[in-house]
# Entry
Amino acid sequence: PNFKVDQAKRVPKNIILMIGDGNGLTQISSTVLANNGELSLTQLNSIGFIKTQSADDFTTDSAGAGTAIATGQKTNNRAIGTNKKGATILNLTEILSEKGFYTGVITTDEITGATPSSFYAHRTDRGMVAEIASDLKISKLKLFISQPTKTVKHIEDAGFVMKTDINTIGASVDEKIGAWFNHSNENVTESNVQKLALATKNGISYLNKEKPFFLMVEGAKIDSYGHANDIKGVVTESISFDRAVSEAIKFADEDGNTLVVITADHETGGLTIPQGNVVRHEIEADFTTHDHTGTMVPVFAYGPMSQEFQGVYENNEIFDKLLKVLKISVKK
Ligand SMILES: [Zn+2]
# Structure
């Protein structure tokens, strides 16, 4: 980052919101210490912490946390874009589309996964996958990139022109586009580690027109490896997420008018790192659970008004802060 417009006191044009699923402070610590002590993320200056508790549980799931961030309201675990009573609540892509923003979602999960769904769907349970997929049809999204889903057909009927090569997305002039990641995450190969960054770079190019844009990027598999108590997978996926962060920061520096906010929905695995060796890139990991934990997770922000994201606050306040810096008011 060149920091030229970081913390500038003016309304940003574009918003890039990045969510590392399960990317808690110890996951970030493991990643930075295994990576010669450096990440793009850890160079940023505007830093805060969010409390992640959902409306009905001390320990949130990705649906409760995703909905809190996307709609500004804490809800029950498993709820997607609906409140505690099951009623639909507006999300950021809907609110910002009304204000002329192009909106997109990129995830290494399936597009019907809990985090991405929270940004376009309204269902009372994350397990309603077919219904969530059908919500894509009436969503405001111009762009999605995700893992292929079992409901592929349903989604390809939702009006998205499907692209077979993520490299070509940036230059597309189609009204609504979608793409599937073709590689599995099973093997640590350079193309796998780089794929979220490639999608982020091309997704930004596609959305970046005269109109402002809002893009949500999720690094989903940090959580999966946390559940599996697999530190190598956690670190690899967290590095992959950081490369996507690098692309967002590079664009923000070129553009000078983009706010990037990077956070996590919750911590996964109760990870501690009692020992390690920075020179040998070694991390000794102890996991205390196969589930999520209730610990606070960091928020990093970069660009105009990034200072708004400093401090300790609730996860749903990210929504409030984003609308505040954009000078948009909505009734909750
Ligand atoms: Zn999880």
